Amino acid sequence: MHPLLGDSSPKSFLPRASDFLGSEHSAYPETSMDIFEVPRHSSPAKVPEMELLRQISEYTQPYDDVIALLHENHAQPSETPGYQQSFSSPIYVLPTEIMTEILLMVLAGEEFHFYDLDLHCVCEVYILMGVCSWWRELILSHPIFWTLPIDFFWGSGADSSDTEAVRDALKACLSRSGSTLPLKISVRFFDAPSPSQLGLSECLLALAEHKSQWQELTVNVYECRAFEYLFTSVNSGNLGLETEFLFPLLEKLEIGICSRVSSLRPSLLSKIVVNSPRLRTLYLPRSFEATSTFRKSEFKNLTSLTLECYFGRSFGCLLEACPLLQDLDVRDFVPGSDHQELPSIYHTHLRTLTIGRIDPRSTPNVWQSVRLPNLTSLKVAIDYRTLHFSYGDICNRLNDLRRMILLSKCVLQELHFDHLHWISQIDVVAFLEGIPTKSCIVDGLPFERAD
Predict the structure, then answer these.
(1) Statement to judge: residues 405 and 347 lie in one domain
(2) Which InterPro entries does this chain map to (predicted)?
(3) What's phi and psi for 214, nearest 5 deg?
(4) Which residue from 116, 379, 393, 412 could staple onto 437, CB 3.0 to 4.6 Å apart?
């Protein structure tokens, strides 16, 4: 035995290799005693030093292999120091202003979702807050993170402890947004809340309390009274006290009402528009009869207008009320009950005109006395379902439009027509003849003019 070790040395000084690698490694030395054992027939003086080192290395190699395998199989603990060192990486020493901009870029396009049906309060903001305490403190201390678009949907309207969580999350989000930063809000619910729907009432009231921050508001409801309920909440506080009916930041208002039975009170819309000095974009449902309410003093600042249906004898009345209008999208137009004198309008601001449907009910001569010299984009669709019994009426409506374009002497950059394949090719060519345009698309395909 090696003179430095002695017989009293414990034979469990090193673990067995077979304990880790299996029985196929049983030929390896069992204890550390064997590693340092010198051949019995050789005197230490006769064994060259290099030869002794070689033998020791040969005996220790199996244990080196076992140790390497252990490190490989238990690498997770060794990664902990690296994880801790990651907190000293450059991203953790960035100035707060730069880190804020980075997080805002990550959140670009995100929204807050508050759904009572699925009990959702979802947004990437909550995920980022869970990354580390620094990000959490940064997000909580900056109101701008809480001004992401809010999508609020109340479907069932049934109160429960779960829907209370949605209500509380909505209130917390609104309170963290401060009192001055603009908000983009989408509200969807079926009907005005009943006494048993306290949760919905409280949510709408919470939204109404931040009306001074509304920049974009989209409301989709089933009946008009639900829309009116929302703005009744705006006009009263928690105790029913009258508050200022003013929307200083509102730039975009979209109103969607499914039911065609009820009609939206023009006086309410007029009150909203008058008290929204920055309003530029407006979307109105079919249940609103536009002609009776459009007054130049109220809609003079609009630049974009979408109407599901226009009730009136002439678009001149509409354009006269909106002198700065650049984009007009009319899904349908039918004769109204107005008897006002038809004005002659030379509208220089309108650039884009979209007519969603022309059918036999469409108002005849609706473009009379209207000129659009700077019109650059025109998109028109016909109601092909009525062609078989009203072919002549539809062609007359198209000719009214064609006459206005020619008299306006505008140069169209693009001209789109849909469903013209239901009209004879001769009538299509006749309609397009003489209309100056750089691009003409008919039913999704480029229209080749005959030379």
Answers:
(1) yes
(2) LRR_dom_sf
(3) -65, 120
(4) 412
pLDDT in tens, 384-429: 776 666 778 888 888 899 999 999 999 999 999 887 767 777 777 8
Residue 224 sits in the same domain as residue 353: no
User: How many CB atoms within 10 Å of residue 232?
Assistant: 14
Query: Which residue range is the domain that position 234 belongs to?
Result: 95-288
3-state DSSP assignment of residue 120: strand
pTM: 0.73
How many Å apart are CA 327 and CA 172, to the nearest integer?
38
Residue 199 neighbours by CB distance under 10 Å: 21
Pairing of strands 112-115, 120-122: antiparallel
Residue 88 located in a structural domain: no
Q: Which two tokens stand for residue 47?
A: 């064994």
Chain centroid, CA 105 distance in Å: 14
* DSSP SS3 for 269: helix
- Residues sharing a CB contact under 8 Å with residue 369, sequence separation 6 or more, in sequence order: 314, 316, 342, 343, 344, 345
DSSP labels for 152-210? EEESS----HHHHHHHHHHHHHHHHTTTTS-EEEEEEESSPPPTT-HHHHHHHHHHHTT
80 within a domain of the structure (yes/no): no
What would the two tokens of residue 276 be?
Answer: 């929204």
Find the mean pLDDT for residues 297-302: 83
pLDDT at 347 (0 to 100) = 96
Tell me the backbone φ, ψ of residue 236, rounded to 5 degrees. -145, 150
Please indicate, yes or no, whether residues 259 and 210 belong to a single structural domain of this protein.
Answer: yes
Tokens 């002695």 label which residue?
A: 6
Helices (H), 7-156: 18-21, 32-35, 49-73, 75-85, 96-106, 124-129, 133-141
Amino acid present at 95: P
- The amino acid present at 100, given as its one-letter code, is T
